[in-house]
Design goal:
heterodimer, A: mainly alpha, disordered C terminus, B: mainly alpha, Zincin-like, 4-stranded mixed β-sheet, 12 helices
């Protein structure tokens, strides 16, 4: 009952950098631009994918991977913006790089043609619920404000606020995955389905400005490498390649 | 090829490039102002009252102190950031370029916080003299919002620099510098379209005068526009904007509020037309291009000690080097700008043939901006994009003497 093909995994340690929390919204600006540009392509891909799914009965694999990468990426940006996670997200939606990750099926599944044809209409009830959720979020926006203050003062995100934000992200992830044909499973509004809170990578971290992050960036030393640059962990600002290895 | 012949070839190429650089710089430096023009000493106390002069000196002195703080503080803050900024790498889960972007944005953000007290002090001073109308909260919110645009700008810069550095290594500057020049061209071209310029409907006589002056100056008339800044400042200003089809003259609403006579406004319009006549915006981009190559090269050399611009570790040092080199070149940039402004004044005098209006305009500038007409020698070096008002009035008198007027 706890399972959904689109699941949000949260491995966040609740530690927050005060400096990045203070400037969090502005720090998201380059991501907003990239999200907008990538999203525009995803919309075109969706139309093509919709036609493909109507014809062959399942989405095209490259489109599926492309859209899945976008959904993972959008979720990391949302997590960063809503203080659900601490590190600055990458631009590629790569798996295994962020403490809050949307697990999305990258292998296309067979989908009912009739449901595919009416997908945009079928998603509406979930969208309404999402808007209600948003309404709730707006109601609790002061709480988000409190969370911001709490993060600024304590250097730590209150767990309840973090979980609330994570659930919003999870539900939106499921809605967009359904809308974009990544899955045929309808979004589940229950806060217990499709989300997993795992032990943080670094547990019981002392709350200091210097506390290690859950995910370390490459090499941070005073003496730089003489010749070789640190290995590129991701390709800069480019969507995931269609031929990425299958998800395990 | 032997080592010595390679060295000789390198020296020849460097010599040729240096020669081309000097030739281009001297070509841009030349103006139509007669080289043997001697500006007479102007006794400002005969033109403005002693209290106005004292007020302007006092105002400018304190403003200069804030200005010096505005030059030194970024150097100190970014020097510290260059040393310790890499610690923020652990706040990133992005790849090298994304992490570089984060470090660059945080550097700018820290600088914003460090500059805030100085900027608030400067605002207090400007408000005290009635030059600026907006409040402290407006300033904080406004500069906070502007940070978003700065973040986007610095991210684009990092994307270009690190992107090329990952492709070309330490030679990134060869590809990066032309891209920056291209961006400068694009920004200059689109700036009039992004500004909130309104048509000049209330001054038909000025529009007619502009056509007449344009004909005299031998330049095509450009649209006269108004920029409404009345809610922000009382300082008068005007600017030549755009390139080619986007060329405009933007008059601040504060210069049209009745404090300046029609002949004075014609001098202003003639001055801005002169900028278009002499292609000054192109020249400024050319000047920028002359400096961006060596600056980018020096940055590439300096950041090698941090592994080069391909790695985010070098980004804090990049920020420091960039600001430090810009500060070092500031005096020469200002000198170049003053030459262009002086030439525009000279051309405006020839076009309007009205030295009295020009003189009255420059005297009015002292009264309306409270700027010291004869500041200490270091003031124009650090902050003077225009000749001082005393120099401008001196040019009017020199022009009169030459014209027998």
């Amino acid at each position: 009952m706890n399972e959904h093909p689109v699941t949000l995994h949260v491995k966040d340690d609740l530690r927050r950098s005060r400096l990045t929390v203070f400037f969090r919204f502005l720090l998201c600006f380059p991501h907003f631009i990239w999200l907008y540009l990538w999203g525009a392509v995803v919309e075109i891909v969706f139309i093509l994918n919709w036609l493909v799914a109507l014809i062959i009965g399942r989405p095209a694999k490259p489109f599926q991977r492309f859209t899945a990468a976008f959904l993972r990426y959008a979720t990391t940006v949302g997590a960063y913006l809503l203080l659900v996670a601490n590190p600055f997200p990458g631009f590629t939606g790569e798996r295994g790089r962020y403490p809050v990750e949307l697990e999305v099926p990258t292998t296309p599944e067979k989908q009912n043609r009739l449901k595919t044809f009416f997908r945009i209409i079928l998603v509406y009830p979930a969208v309404i619920v999402a808007y209600l959720t948003m309404f709730v979020v707006f109601l609790v926006y002061p709480l988000i404000g409190f969370a911001w203050w709490a993060s600024m003062i304590k250097g730590r995100m209150p767990r309840g606020f973090r979980d609330l934000g994570a659930n919003v992200l999870r539900y939106f992830g499921q809605i967009y995955a359904y809308l974009f044909l990544v899955t045929g499973t309808y979004p589940c509004s229950s806060p217990y389905v499709g989300i997993s809170f795992e032990e943080p990578v670094v547990a019981n971290v002392p709350v200091t400005a210097e506390a290690p992050a859950a995910i370390e960036a490459p090499v941070a030393v005073d003496e730089p490498p003489a010749v070789e640059a640190p290995p590129a962990a991701e390709e800069p600002a480019a969507p995931e390649a269609p031929e990425a290895p299958p998800e395990t | 090829m032997t080592k010595s012949s390679r060295r000789l070839l390198g020296l020849l190429i460097f010599g040729a490039l240096a020669g081309a650089w000097v030739w281009a710089a001297s070509a841009l430096w030349r103006t139509s102002v007669p080289g043997n023009l001697k500006l007479p000493h102007v006794d400002m106390s005969t033109l403005v009252t002693a209290s106005e002069l004292h007020r302007a000196e006092h105002f400018s002195f304190v403003l200069d102190l804030f200005g010096v703080a505005g030059l030194l503080l970024p150097l100190v803050v970014l020097a510290l950031y260059a040393k310790w900024g890499h610690r923020f790498m652990k706040e990133s889960a992005a790849g090298p370029i994304g992490t570089g972007m984060l470090l660059a944005m945080l550097g700018i953000a820290i600088l914003w916080m460090a500059m805030l007290p100085s900027n608030l002090g400067q605002l207090w001073w400007l408000r005290r003299y009635g030059i600026v109308k907006y409040g402290y909260a407006d300033m904080i919110i406004g500069t906070w919002s502007a940070l978003g645009a700065e973040f986007l700008g610095i991210c684009l810069t990092i994307l270009i620099v690190m992107g090329f550095a990952r492709l070309l290594g330490d030679h990134w500057w060869l590809a990066g510098a032309p891209v920056f020049v291209g961006i400068a061209l694009l920004v200059t071209f689109v700036a009039p379209y992004l500004s909130s310029l309104q048509p000049l409907n209330d001054h038909p006589a000025l529009v007619q005068a502009e056509h007449r002056l344009a004909e005299k100056e031998g330049v095509k008339a450009v649209p006269l526009k108004v920029e409404n800044v009345g809610g922000l400042t009382t300082a008068p200003n005007a600017e030549a904007m755009g390139l080619g089809p986007s060329r405009r003259i933007g008059l601040w609403s504060t210069i049209l509020d009745g404090r300046f006579s029609e002949p004075q406004l014609e001098v202003v319009v003639a001055h801005e037309l002169a900028h278009h006549k002499h292609n000054d915006l192109w020249k400024m981009i050319g000047w920028y291009a002359l400096f961006v190559f060596p600056i980018a090269y020096v940055i590439a050399r300096v950041t090698r000690r941090r592994g080069g611009m391909a790695v985010p570790l070098a980004v804090p040092l990049f920020l420091f080097a960039w600001v430090a080199l810009s500060t070092v070149t500031l005096p020469i940039d200002n000198a170049f700008s003053r030459r262009l402004e002086a030439e525009a004044d000279w051309t405006a005098l020839q076009a309007t043939n009205d030295p009295q209006a020009a003189k009255a305009l420059f005297v009015s500038f002292v009264r309306t901006t409270d700027e010291d007409p004869s500041p200490p020698f270091w003031d124009p070096i650090l902050f003077g994009s225009h000749p001082t008002e005393a120099q401008r009035i001196g040019m009017v008198e020199a022009w009169q003497a030459r014209s027998g007027g």
